[in-house]
Amino acid sequence: MKPSQLRAVERLLTRRYPGQGGYTLEQARELAALSAGIGRQIGLLIDRKGRPSMVIVGEQKGIYIPELARSRMGAGRLRGLRLLHTHLSEEPLSEEDLTDMLFLRLDSVAALTVDRMAAPRTLFSAHLLPPAASREPYRLLPPADWDKVDTDFTAQAAALEDELAREGESLAAPGKAGREQAVLVCVSDAPREDMEASLDELAALADTAGLAVADRVVQRVARVNPKFILGKGKLAEIEILALRSGAGTLLFDNELAPGQIRNLAEVTQLKVLDRTQLILDIFAQNARTRSGKLQVEMAQLKYLQPRLVKQDRAMSRLMGGIGGRGPGETKLEIDRRRIRERIARIKNELSGLRTRRAAARAGRSGAGLPVVSLVGYTNAGKSTLLNTLTGSDVLAENRLFATLDPTTRRLRFPSEREVILTDTVGFIRELPKELMEAFRATLEELESADLLVQVADASHREVLHQIRAVEDILHDLGLDTIPRILVMNKWDRMEEAAGRELLSRFPGAIPVSALSREGLNPLVTEILRRAPFGGGVVARDVEGDGIWCDPPDAMQ
């Protein structure tokens, strides 16, 4: 641009644009003449007091709006800015114009067309709509002559914001106040029923992490979009759902590539998380011991390491140039190096942890006591079963991953026989590889087990998939050769017909209720039958002591 044109563009920032009509006639003429003179679209982001917060000079066919601050974003709130820009031909609002309005939550978008004489001609405008009001997430207003616009854009935005806020309040789930809202998204070629079940589990994970589920979206696709994982049309729908409910987070059931997370965050202006990030966050919240915190930290660092990327791959620590001096180490490379060094230190500390645990296991082995380990899907009731059998008070909550660190208790039977009973971290389908590697020190507790008690939640509608997932993980860990007892917990919640069908699939399974103690006698009998008892002495390194007493009522 010429210096005079640049000064003219800067003067636009000093104007005040009225909400009624959107502009004065003189302002419209000025904008049209300037846009025609430089041969580019010009855009103004105008706040509700009529002050331009930004002037954008685009290309001949479009403008690019840079990233905006999120100062006003919240439940049912719009950006507080409207876009007024020029079109250098008699063209209505483009798809890009409407997409910008949706993703940026603009109060409205308006295009003032400019004719060949550099004069304003027609105003095309649109504003958002609540999703329940129309199948389209926006309304296109009728085209108006540039000098006969009667829309009050400020009042229109305030009214829309009030309506969105009312809808958001009516949609808010009870007991979720003050919690961060998230829209759950699943994109897959799997059957819809499987996708819904997967989202149910994601919703439980979100609740454990402290997120409130505002809405959920399922999209079946033959091929996942490599850039955004789903199409921009669907993204626009999700953006409206987030606006309606005040959600600030998109939570994907898929594992997202670093580029996909970055692209989605840039387009939607929302926080973007995937399933792996969520599970890592839950583990970080629940880690209590030094070993648990170390293992979680290592998993987080391994997840973060490949995501510390920038578009410029020329940054390196190479020495070169005049006098052998290179540009030095970049901030990105310093971060990467520190992560590598921290991972190495954690590995050393975890190695010491493994050594100490191996010594403890050797001590228990020397005592001649059988080791029985509880394994199973997360929230299947392993800790509750441990507490019921041993009379302990290990943390047992109705949420995923309440237990991260292995807990060991001694269980005495009236026949003067004893076993070591251990509770371990719960499994989950598609357990992130970073967690599998980091928690190997914890999972190694299972390697010394003489008997595994696989606990399943019989009442869960995905119990078959959960049992399969646990079996697959045990196979991956090389633990599928250890003798195993399958326990169907929470049997008191089962309908009789469903229970018969489940036992027909797993004829050797033992139905129990860890809470009510029903059915535990057959389980104890099976443990006594299959545990390899020896003539050892009492183990002294095991915390806690439980004496088994028969429950008054056995399950029929």
Summed up, what is this model?
GO terms for molecular function: GTP binding; metal ion binding; ribosome binding. This protein has 556 residues and is of the alpha/beta class. 38% of the residues lie in helices and 19% in strands.
Describe this entry's structure for a reader:
This protein has 556 residues and is of the alpha/beta class. It folds into 3 domains: 167 residues, no CATH class; 102 residues, Rossmann fold (3-Layer(aba) Sandwich), CATH 3.40.50; 181 residues, P-loop containing nucleotide triphosphate hydrolases (Rossmann fold, 3-Layer(aba) Sandwich), CATH 3.40.50. The chain is built from 16 helices and 18 strands. The strands form 3 sheets. Strands 1, 2, 3, 4, 5, 6 and 7 form a 7-stranded mixed beta sheet that branches. A 7-stranded mixed beta sheet has the order 17-16-15-12-14-13-18, sandwiched between helices. A 4-stranded parallel beta sheet has the order 9-8-10-11, sandwiched between helices. Strand 10, helix 7 and strand 11 form a beta-alpha-beta unit. Helix 8 runs antiparallel to helix 9. It is elongated and about 100 Å long. The C terminus is likely disordered. Its main location: cytoplasm. It comes from hydrocarbon metagenome. This is Gtp-binding protein hflx.
